[in-house]
Amino acid sequence: MKKNKTTLVMTNVLMILFVGIFLTLSGRFLYIQAVGEVQGINLQEWADNRRTNNFTIKADRGTIYDRNGMELAQDRATYRLFAIVDETYSTNPEKKLNHVADVKATAEALAPILEMEVSDIETTLQNGIDSDRFQVEFGTEGSQLSQETKLKIEALDLPGVNFDEEAKRYYPNGTFASQLVGLAQKKDDSIITGLTGIEAQLDNYLQGTNGSISYERDKYNVKLLDPNEVIQKEQDGNDVYLTLDQKIQTFLEDAMSQVVEEYDPERITATVIDPKTGEILAMSNRPSYNPNNLGQVENWYNDVVSTPIEPGSTMKAFTLAAAIEEGVYNPNEEYKSGRYKIDEITKPIHDYNRDWGTITYEEGIQRSSNVAVSKLVWEKMGTDIFLEYLKAFHFDQKTGIDLPREQAGILLYNWPIEKLTASYGQGLTVAPIQLIQAATAIANDGVMMKPYVISKIVDNQTREIVEETESEVVGNPISEETAQKVLDTLETVITSEHGTAHNIYNLSDYSVAGKTGTAQFSQGGYLEGESDYIFSFLGIAPKEDPELVMYITVQQPKLEPGEAGSAPVSFIFKNVMENSLHYLNIQPDKERQNAVRTYTFPDVIGRATTQVKEQLVNEGLTVTVIGDGAKINKTNIDIGDRVVANQRVLLTTTNPTMPDITGWSVRDLLELSELVGFNVEISGNGYAVNQSIEKGSTINKDTKVTVEFSPPDQSIDRTQEDSPEEEG
C-alpha cells in the first residue's frame, strides 16, 4: 500500500511538472507567434535576412581630364578571382559542375597564369573544403587582375572558378604631372580615396555614392521567382577638368626625363603658364613617380608650390620693373661695376666678374650685375619703395593656387644687407609658383593673374557644370608701358653678346625675353662646389605678344668640367617652349635661314587612303595608316593646323590594326589610342621599345596595349656654345 501511495505521488508530481513545462513552452510559442521576437530580434527580419542576398553596387570615382578631354586619372575595371568549393552548389553534378571538384587539376591550370606555386593553390582550395567554406580567394595574386588575365582563365573553363569586378585607380600616362594630379588608392573599406594632389584636394567631388541591390534566394543561392528585388542606383563621382594640356605636359615630361638621364640632378621644377589667363598648362617635378607602379617614392611633394628656394638673379627682372615704374632707370647711364660698399654693411656687394669696369645699367642687367640692381634700390629708388613693389608682386604671401600644401617663401627685409641682397634674389625665398605669378604681370601688360589648375567640375550624369574657375586678376604692380620696357630689356639678355643667356635660350622661330638665375640656397643650407647651385631661367615668348611663361629650376646637375649650369635648363626650355608654341599654332615672329618647312593640313576625311598618304608624304610628313580601308575616317591633325616636316600623321580607316610603334613618343601613342579608343598602359619614359600587341593585330575599344618606353640612346648635346661666364 505504501509503495502504491509513493508511486501515485511521483506520478502526480511528474504530471504537474509536465503540465508546467507544456504550458510554459506553449505560452512561449504563443508569445513568439504574437510578437514575432526572440531576445529583441525580429524573427521575420531575421528570416528575410537569412534568405536575402545584399550586394553593393560600386560607384565609379570621377575621371580627371586635361583641358581637351584626355583622361589623366580614371577608374579601371580589374577582377578578383574566387573559387566555390562547396559541393552542394552543384545542384546537378552529372550535368554541370559549379564547384571545384578536382583540386589538383584546378591548381595546375591556375598556377602559371597567377604566377603562384601549384602547392599554394592546392592548399588554399583544400583548406576551404576541409573547413566547410563556401568559397576561397587567392590573396593579392588573385586580385586586381587585368581583363587580359581574366580572359585567359575563363578560356580554361574551370568549374567553380569565378570573378568579381572591382575598380582600381589608373593613370594612363604613367609619370605625368604626378604630384599635381596626385594619387588615389583603396583603403581597408575598399573605397578609392584621394591621398595627394588633385585626387585629395577634390576627393569630395570625385567620390561617388554606392548603390545596392537585394533579392531573396534559396539555400543554393539561386534567386527566387518572386525575389522581392530592391535596387538603389549608385551615383558616380563628378568629373574634373584641369587646365593642363596633355601635349604640352608630355613635351615637358620627355625633356625632364632626358635631363635626369644625362645630368642626374637632385631636383627639377618646371611650369608653363598662360600669362593672360593664369591657366597652368604644364607643371612637373623631379624626382617624380609612376602612380601605377609606385616602387620607392623619393618625393611626394609638388615642389613648385611646396618648396621655397632662393630665386637668385631671376629676381632682378622684378627689381628692374620697379625701377622703370618709378622712373629711376636710365639704360644708358653708366656706373662702376664689380664692387659696391655702403657704410651700413660690413662686406661689399660683388659682381661675379669684377673686371667689367664702368658700364651702362642696361649692360649691367644683361650681365646680371648685382651691383647694378643694388644701386638702383639703395641710391635711385629707396628701400622702402622697393619693399612696396615686392609686396605688390605678392612675394610676401601665398598665391592661393588651387593645389594642396602651398608654402610661401620668407621675405627677409630688416637689415640694410637684406634690403640689398633682396634686389638680386638672395636672403629671401619664394616658392616657384610665387615667381611665376609675379611674371604674369611682366608678360600681361602689368596685370598679374592668379595661377590655377582646376578648370571645371562636371556632373557625371547630367554633364552640367557644378563649379567653374574664372581667371582672376590679383594685382597691377606695374603699368603696361613698364611691362613692355621690361620685356624689351630682358630680350637683350638673350640677344646681346654680353647677355648671360646669349646663344643659350634663343628659339629658332620665336623671340624670347628672359632672365637667368643661379642660387646656392637649398633646404639644408648653402651648397658648395662647381655644380652645387640651383640653376634657373624665367622665359617669356613670343616677346612682342607673350603667349607662354616658363620657369625652370635645376638643382645640382652633374656637370662635366667647364660645362655651364645653364645647359640642362636651356635644353628643357628650348624643347618645351618651341614645341608648345608651334602646337598652339602661335605665328612665328622671327625670320631665319633654313626654316623648318610648315604645311597647312588639308581636309582628308572621306578621301582615298592611297591618295592622301602619297600627298602627305610628298609634303615631308611621316604618315602611318591604321587599318586596310579604302577611305580615311579619322586623323590626329585638325583641318587647317600647321604641321612641320617629319611630324607624325595618323590616318585611321576601317578595320584598324596595330602598327609597329618602335621609336614612337608617348605623345604619338596617346594620339593613336585616342583615335582608335583602346586602353593603353605605359611603362618607362622616352621612346617605345616594346609593345604587347603585335603589328597587324586587330585593335578596337576593348583592346589593352602595354608599351615599354626607354630614353633615347643619343645623349643631350653637352657641348657649350660661345656664351658669357655663368653668373654666380
UniProtKB/TrEMBL annotation:
GO cellular component: plasma membrane
The keyword Transmembrane belongs to this UniProt entry's keyword annotation: yes
Domain of life: Bacteria
Molecular function terms from GO: penicillin binding; serine-type D-Ala-D-Ala carboxypeptidase activity
Residue ranges, annotated region (Disordered): 703-728
Biological or metabolic pathway of the protein: Cell wall biogenesis; peptidoglycan biosynthesis
Transmembrane as UniProt keyword: yes
Residues that span the membrane, as ranges: 12-31
GO process terms (BP): cell wall organization
Limits of the PASTA domain: 652-711
This enzyme's EC code(s): 3.4.16.4
Keywords associated with the record: Membrane, Transmembrane, Transmembrane helix
Family matches, as SMART domains: PASTA
Main localisation: membrane
Class in the EC hierarchy, top level: hydrolase
Entry's family note: Belongs to the transpeptidase family.
Listed name of the protein: serine-type D-Ala-D-Ala carboxypeptidase
Gene giving rise to this polypeptide: pbpB
